[in-house]
């Protein structure tokens, strides 16, 4: 068979008697498998590497003299690492620099993230159905030639009663409130999507009993699949005997496909099983496209990851959680429209 593989494709199609009468002689293979063929051509094994089985064993004196660590120490110069391993630069020094970072899709890149290894059902629904529907629902027809409206003044000016008011920057809103984002029209370039979801649990009882903090961290790890980080209190609370800097909570953040899978479990597995569940308050939001809602300990138990191993958690130590959904929308109205298309219910008075 080895000799037949060495022939051309046309020669393989000839019958065996015709191959025997061929004027071209087929020599012995370069590597022989049997001992008889190796005896006939002893030079055929010269290209093989010497294995540890055929190598002659070292004597006791040679073993004593064999010191690889001393040979490495006596070596004057070290081997150049750049010839064996490529390290991308830590800083990009401009597009004209001779050394450029590899693209993020390259496994050598510093910002390389493997994956995605799955395609969530909710994200597939968003790509195929929800995103086109959002563009249709939010479409505002503007006839050609219509003049653009100037945006309203969001910052407060100065009355000019003092000479120091001249060339001074405009002031923010009264009360020190932060300016909300300006709502942009939904186009094919800025369709709202989920950016990340943060699950936070505040356990003030953990100051007296650290086991509550351990249980809360285990529950959030099972719910999100991400190792939660421990949060500390930012101020003193006398009623709860809390001091600033004490460990009294945990939080975990999921991104990308994990965020869509977490919302999918909430919409299709947790919310329908909550008794007399009205939904999320329509007035929630920070005016910048981020919504939040809370779940009680009884509702946390309905997550399939917690329910499957419910006997692992002490029933009275399972905490509640606050879930923050951060989207790429620029207003609460757009974020609410996105979550409603995913199946999240809302109730109450809507606040724009």
Automatic annotation (TrEMBL):
Keywords linked to the UniProt accession: Ribonucleoprotein, Ribosomal protein
InterPro entries: Ribosomal_uL5, Ribosomal_uL5_C, Ribosomal_uL5_dom_sf, Ribosomal_uL5_N
Keyword Ribosomal protein attached: yes
Biased composition (Basic and acidic residues): 58-77
Cellular component aspect of the GO annotation: ribonucleoprotein complex; ribosome
PANTHER family (UniProt xref): 60S RIBOSOMAL PROTEIN L11-RELATED (PTHR11994)
Family under the similarity heading: Belongs to the universal ribosomal protein uL5 family.
Name of the protein this chain belongs to: Ribosomal protein L5 domain-containing protein
Species annotation: Dichotomopilus funicola
